[in-house]
Protein 1
Amino acid sequence: VIVWGANGTGKTSLLDAVQWLVLGDVPRLRATVLRSQEDVVTNRYADGPASVEIAFRDAGGTTLVTRTGHGKNGRLTVRRPDGTHHEDGQARTLLAGLIGRGDDHDDDGKWFLRTHLLQQAEMTELLSGDTKERYHFLAQLTGLDELSQLDDQLQRELRQLRAAVRERERELEEARERVAVARSEHEESMAI
């Protein structure tokens, strides 16, 4: 999906709202906050706290995800198609699943920003980075970073399996030697 429009029509505000809902923060706005207790997202056109809601639709129905409030007093809620309602920690886990990322990744939202909200600043970073940075960026964008992690894990497990096979082969060779000695001793016994 490409969001296009004239300057000042709300493109960046839309993307900031999505980012705030998913990450609970908008890092690029952090520098504009004057007091630490202020939130980066405010509702200037209505009384009350800011609120963003996104509907995720699939064959199972519509899941509504809402972030409301200010800073540490904010709330993340998820309402599933079956009517169940989840908040905060459980809601974060469900949201991570909805966007296709396990809750165990701690990359300050870079993965989400590169794979779901590729904004102009991210494209500038891609174009101005060195070869290694570009590779890392494109690996995140295409999901190769996760394949690389899986490959690393498989390589570690393969090394462990090969070591276990070598150990079993050594044990088998020792057992064959013991059997050969026992046969020899048996043949000598029979000859006597």
Protein 2
Amino acid sequence: ELKREIERRKRVEEELRAREVLLRESESRFRALAETTSAAIFIVQEGKIRYANPAARFITGYGPEELVGLELWRLAHPSYQAPLRENRLVSRWSDDVHARYEIKIIHKNGEPRWVDMTAGDMEYQARPAWVFTAFDITERDMAEQALRKARDELEVRVAQRTAEIQAASQRIETILRTLPVAVVVADETGYIVDANGAFESLWDSD
């Protein structure tokens, strides 16, 4: 029995060592990917950032060493802090890992930035965690806003010009109808397309 117990423990220890090797290899592959991608990556446990890749600096302005230990919601714009702090967004992500959100954050220099963020659950150092990826879409958002503004301004100018043309047409129509002299309008083939009252009176008198 003692021999069997020793053999069982050896098998368990070998399995544990194999799992540890796989875990280290997995984390090594993750870090190799995370530290070379242009997307910001954050690993969050219990609301706090446990890992941030180098690209996080370009989006947040903070280095990875400054981000570790920081609560994720503190990076968000005040209007987005409550949903992050209360895990409302994360709970919705847990239902659909592929959900995406556009969130406003505050850069270290105080400027607001827009990021396209996704999240999924994972294990980090043998504990449940969330992994967030984020892309800076501030320039795209500004371009879209400029495009919408230009489109709105164009629509306003078109409406104004249309109103001006309609007003001018009405003035011409009024003048045409009230002139004491006969006025007739013909198309390029010679057919009469319009005439004022004086012309109609003249025609009737003939």
